[in-house]
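pasting for the record
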Amino acid sequence: MTKKSVPNAVFAKRLRQLLKETKTSHQKLAENIGVTQQSVSLWGSGQTFPDMYKFKKIAEYFGVSYDYLYGDTKSKSHQNMLICEELGLSDEAVENLKELNDSDDLSEIMSELLENIEFLRFLTDIRDLRSINASGTALERIDAGYAFYLALKQIERVLHTLTEEKVKPHNFKPKIKKPPPEEKGKV
């Protein structure tokens, strides 16, 4: 039987990450899934790999998908896996979008932004600027700063267009409470 070094390495890294994120000790995990602390330590170092039953128990203990634990996806949540893979989003981004969806106003705005070609250009500009700032010369960084300024102006136009369609200033009538009429003869 040959060792699978890649899945072991990914599994080991993910296990260590989950232990750290949840502040779970090797002992606590071992007790919960019915193994020794040494087994957890060997898994975390990538020296061994758990059997299918223990693997399943580990995934259930941490509330992550089997695919995540094995290294087939970056998504911890089984529910988010397809969305994350198809769109390249993180679990946190998908969860934030789900929260936005709970608010009709915000989900409508988000849809309009993502449908707007200018907003998409803004996002690609930001991506390009990040790569220039990471490895560019001083002159390229200055150009990137100016490009970022132009990109912000671009998003300002997008937001103005979106709000202009929603709120027509000439139709806006503030509600002002009028004071009650004074009664005659009262002092």
